[in-house]
Amino acid sequence: MRAIQELAGKFVFLAWTAQCVFAAPAFSQTAQVEPLPGPDSHETGPGPRSHLFGEWGGVRTNLENRGVKFDFQYVSDTLWNIQSEQAERRAMWNRVRGTVDIDFGSLIGQQGLYFHATGLWQGGGNLGTYLGLVTGPSGMASENTCRLDSWWIEKRWLDERITARVGQFACQDFYGAQHYAASYIFEPMGYALGNLFTTFESFDPFSTSAMEIRVAPLRNLYVKSMVLDGDRSPFAHNPTGLVPQFRDNPVSVSEIGFTPGKVASSVRAFDDVEGRKGYSGLYQFGVSYNPGTFTVPGSATTRSGNYLLYWMASQALWRVDPQEAKGLDVTLAYDWSPPSINRNYTLLTAGLRFNEPLPLRFHNTMSLGYVRNSLSPQFLPPGMPAWRTEHGAEFNVLLQIGPILFQPVIQYYANVGGGSHQAVVCGFRTKVEF
Question: What is the CATH number of the domain that holds 209?
């Protein structure tokens, strides 16, 4: 607890210092809007047909004009293992989420002050666990729960060049998150890099207490840092999400990002159609560190401290119209952590996305993704054959008609769980905005 208090003091000092340093006139930009995580994020912005229940008789619009925004959605992944060593099985994962965002500038005249809260119910079957995969076939599947996921109070200064927040939120929603996540189904590309758990980064929906500061000193450059409670069992210690916890070591995560084609202070963790216009890109380097105690495999020896490094790049390759979104995007990510204390110590992802490939009047994409997971030989049980590198590939088509999204997918896995078996998975994602 004392360490958290000391770090909080440092964050206040950094925010004050940054405000003094960057007191120069701010550059022009669009407002920064934090999205919902991965599978829950929005592909398209609000519009006259973006919600199944419309504008609630004008109530939704009136509230938004006053700075209060509500979002309700249902999203599910339905997947089958049509070929594997396991018996064929259908697994369906469901999620219902409600979110409120308040802009106190519009509500009571407190400019730059915001509040966010989101809660959910989720449950179903986890096909990845059933098949023994390292790569999760669904970026949604985790634990059954009904929980207040995250909440935070946020303050922005100098035309959003400086942002600070404190509350309860998931590190993986913002660090190591795949920028093109909504365009993929399987976890390492459809949410965040799959082995960020090595340093116990918190994940959605089991968020932990956290604080963050983000600074954009240059038009195309940002730096951000977060400190969170590295609770190793957040789903057991705080199942409702209503009681803030400080159970374990404070984990620190930092990232630097370069944003050609857009203003750094307006970059979202997960992209949408509006943000894809032009030749936009995002290049990130991050590091996560946990000072806690970790066990060396095969012995009772412990080691103090663990870390993970990641590199990510997302870039528009070609546009039919240089000012619009139709065209090809590419993404690449790689991370590494010490193999002496981390079983899944390195991961590589790569993807190609075609925006609006079909001549239809509604939004559509086609995406191809690849994931490679490498397992540390130091975790190999005695007498077992050497681990093989697990490979995963996915192709999906996203179709969004007003408030309804339908995303059929097929996935192929080689060397399941580091062994010699293969698996083929097919299914679809559905999402409805209310």
Answer: 2.40.160
